[in-house]
Amino acid sequence: MEPQTLLLVDDNPNYRSAFRRNLEMEGYRVLEAENASEAMSELARSQPAVVITDLDMTHRTEGLDLIRECKRHYPLLPVILISAVGTFDEGALAQQFGASAVLSKSRIEEAAAHFCERLQGVVRQRRRVEEELARAEAAPAEESARAETRARLAALLSEPDLDAGCKGALYEAILSLETRPDGGVLGRSTQEIERRLAQDLPQFAQLTAETREMIVLADDLYFRGEREESVSISRNIGFSYTFAVECEIKHRINKKIVRLLADKAFGRLLDGMMDARTGGLDLFFNQYVIQATRQLGEDLNADIARQVLGKMRELRTRYKADGLKALGVIVFLFGRNYAFKTVRGEQKVANPLGLKGLSEEETLALADMLVRLQHLRNPYVHPEFTAREKAGKLRETALECLALILRLY
Questions:
Q1: Which of 184, 196, 277, 358 would suit a FRET pair with 129, their CA atoms being 20 to 30 Å apart?
Q2: Looking at residue 227, what is its pLDDT?
Q3: Cα torsion angle, 357, 359, 360, 361, sign
């Protein structure tokens, strides 16, 4: 059996060498990086099972920055923070950012066997999450089967040691198995809600009937939530706003996506973006995506691009763009003009989706907001916001998305 690969990140070469020897004696293959920048470059080249990082490197909290960057681009990748000087607050921040464990360097040296047990536990946990996510994706359409899958995912989600990245992925999978939300009886008249929406979104009347129905439901739930706290209301607010935006953008670009998938030239472009050997993004394209998404928020990332492109490449003309993350990636990668380097020279991408109506900056903003909107409905993503703040951000982002989508043609 091939040994598991770990990435060890520490600016002290003596410590790295000693720790590496100990890990290799336990049967691991160890890659090294001196800082966060080197670590991200190594992650683009290889696929380690776990990242182990120091806290204090070129600056006091570089390890925390690396955790955020790792979990942004590789949400399911376990990251363990080790430190000789970290405070309780820094440890709490590390776990909030997605660290699977926070350990003292001195305790690792004193109890190497315990560390390796913890390491294996983290690896097993990630494998279980990946297996359950794969099963959820292949779940039959029957409601009984979907309910069983939701229950299994919910049980895994409740495990106390699960990191934030895994929790976020599981929560998204649970939501994807749910049906359209039922808001019940509207708390206010439809006319009153529509008047308010028309003030905040002047193009409201241009939306499709289904989008208008869902955005009215979402707005009723949102303002009802100001008067009563309810988990189900909060959950349906997120579902309703995201469903409304997904309906509208699919109405605008679904035919373009179908034409794109049938284009043989697009198939060759897609193949060039992927690494057939690893199933991940091509090394050069991965570096382009990481660089290009740095100018955006923290939502659109290389791992999401890998997931979407992998599915598109596997299914080709049978691919269905379901979910705002998938639609955001498609707009980002195929709805604008850009170029990236390859081993054979420069590869130009000339808006193969054929989107019109938005500037380059607006297209990037729309792509990022589509992914962000799906993340905002997830309680394990963007923990810096309270539930109420998230609801407000959901409404604001949904209306901004719709304003841009209505200009597409």
A1: 277
A2: 54
A3: negative
